[in-house]
Amino acid sequence: MRRWATGGRPANDAGPLERAAQPCVASALAALGADAVPRQERPGLLMPALALLQRRHGSIADGTIAALARSLGLPESKAYAAATFYSSFSLAGDACKARPPALDAALESVMGAERAPDAIWSRGIVAPDGRPDGALVRCGHIRPASVDDYRAAGGYAGLRAALAMPAEAVIEAIRSARLRGRGGAGFPTAAKWDHSRTVVAPAKVVICNAAEGDPGAFADLAILQQDPHSVLEGMAIAAHAVGAATGIVYIRSEYEEAIATVRGAVREASESGVLGSGFTVEVFSGGGRYVCGDETALLNSMEGAAGRPRLRPPLPTEHGLWGRPTVVDNVKTLALVPLIMRHGPEWFASIGTAATTGPAILAVSGFVRRPGVVEVPMGVTLRQAIEDGCGGMADGARLKAMQTGGPLGAFLPADALDTPICFDAMKAAGSPLGSGGIIVVDHRTCMVASSRAFAEFAAAESCGHCAPCRLGTQQVVLALRNLMGPGACAADLDLIHRMEAAMRSSSFCAYGRSAASVVVSAVRVFPEEFEAHAADRRCPADWCSMEAL
Known about the structure:
Elements: E1 4-5, E2 9-10, H1 16-31, H2 46-57, H3 64-72, H4 76-85, H5 102-111, E3 119-122, H6 147-152, H7 157-163, H8 167-177, H9 189-198, E4 205-210, H10 219-226, H11 228-242, E5 246-251, H12 256-272, E6 280-285, H13 295-302, E7 326-330, H14 331-343, H15 345-349, E8 359-366, E9 372-377, H16 382-390, E10 399-404, E11 410-413, H17 423-429, E12 437-442, H18 447-461, H19 467-483, H20 490-506, H21 510-514, H22 517-525, H23 527-536
Parallel strand pairs: 3-9, 4-5, 4-7, 5-6, 8-12
Antiparallel strand pairs: 1-2, 8-9, 10-11, 10-12
Helix pairs in contact: 1-3, 3-4, 5-18, 7-11, 7-14, 8-9, 8-11, 10-11, 10-12, 11-14, 18-19, 18-22, 19-20, 20-22, 20-23, 22-23
């Protein structure tokens, strides 16, 4: 009788390409410690194994997917679907990529959006003793991975205070501080932690979401590269509060330097014992898709599947990674947690506004003198962040608009410059704060071309799960391309509005429902530019050639 492997294939039916790949696959899995991983969790080794094999050999050779699928107990179709979903993996003979690298270049060319800070700047966050403090004060002043440097600068004092308190008291401190998540949704952190704490389970997980993928966003990158121990301390406090023994830092694969730095920090923290007994942290390299910033898509990614959002409920705090209650928090959120435990919730709540307390950590790029990461109290205006933090507009540039909220956000006009930076005020002004990315647009920028860059990003990053998003984003791109060419007409604007309405009402997840929001906001704020393209076939900014593209 023939033995059948998981996935429905006979164990002895491996073809020549799979047999040729088996030694490399076995070596990679051995390096990852696969023998120590429970059988039901072995599919989670798919992405780490693919990443390791690609580093070793330059690409994923033919037969590798089949060999990995057999070794991990996965159907080959599922393993192949996952491997081809992520843009960071290069399969031999496959030139397709989920997100063309040219998209980042297009956004930088049209809008000046950048992926790295020129400067890291903190002002207005003062500790009770009168000294400057905040999530960014140590950046550039300590050796990032050094646990000794971090402790000498006051690090891990918040964790020591938390470990001396009952878990309920820690959560109450976070609740009294009124900390809201800095990843985009602004959900109260204490509510998430308390929900996870009350779930009875033998094992729980805390995950740091560092899948930062917004155009013009780099604040998480700055913290991970310059002060990773602040994130580890926040994770350890969260673990104590919810009863978790495992922590995982999920970092996008493009952040290679940050991955190495965080691993070094984890090693030093573990060896010194500062994280507390029984709590361990590991680093997981993501596959390079924006949608994995969604916490449920991130969980699917870690379980060896394509990073597509899950239907909720159940919530991750009830049923997360491998079915365990899981708390997923953003880098900036976790970096702020130690400040609360070190200085007290009353101090934290005294910063910012009544509804949005604490510091705002912003990534400001575009046409400013000093693009960088800016930390200011919540409630200061966009004008203060741009002028005080980044030196104002670049030489020769006049402010035209500000793009906030990432690819699911919107454009704000120049007259919104005095809008307070907080979740509620930004939403009321017409664009969410999101994860804190601000792209400053100057007077020479074509809003149709800018919208097209965002629309192409949205189309490339759609996970493809539902038709409204998969097809609607493509239709928006086609309409904008047509508006930039000789065939521009009013019907293109109508198509944009119809597709946005369809996606907003019927897409599966928040990504699809907001994937055209940037484009529609540009049409709303700058109708004359779009009408000039559609009616006169003329680009007021002289950016579009209006010739066949």
